[in-house]
Design a protein that fits this description.
121 residues, globular, 3 strands, 3-stranded antiparallel beta sheet, 6% strand, mainly alpha, 40% helix, single chain
Length: 121
């Protein structure tokens, strides 16, 4: 396995899967599901509105790197949860890495069960 920068790790305890491997471990999720997985505001309606705002400003705030497909019409944009998790720990009033790791682990698709104990961010 490689560490986060793509180089072979010399110490097995410090190796992390490459970000492309982690990206592939997750299925893209629509924005309303992303809002539930990564709640930034306790009230669900306000949280979804906030996520819609953030998604609308994705090219300005860096969330665009997590977007897999832009929504058109009534179709929602989809986002890779791994990249959203990486992003959401960096923003002001974002989420703690431990919380994000737990949410990512519990939202892995069945095909990615090998990553259940992974530290993602």
């Amino acid at each position: 396995m490689t560490n986060g920068d793509g180089n072979e790790g010399s110490d097995a305890g410090n190796t992390l899967p490459d970000s492309k491997v982690l990206e592939a471990a997750f299925d893209p999720l629509p924005l309303d599901v992303i809002a539930k997985v990564f709640p930034l505001i306790k009230d669900p309606e306000r949280n979804l509105s906030h996520w819609k705002y953030l998604a609308g400003k994705a090219s300005q705030n860096g969330l665009d790197s997590a977007r897999k497909k832009a929504g058109k019409g009534k179709a929602q944009s989809t986002f890779n949860p791994y990249f959203v998790g990486c992003w959401v720990i960096t923003i002001k009033d974002g989420l703690a890495p431990d919380f994000v790791n737990r949410k990512l682990s519990s939202n892995l698709p069945k095909r990615s069960d090998d990553f259940k104990d992974e530290t993602f961010v």
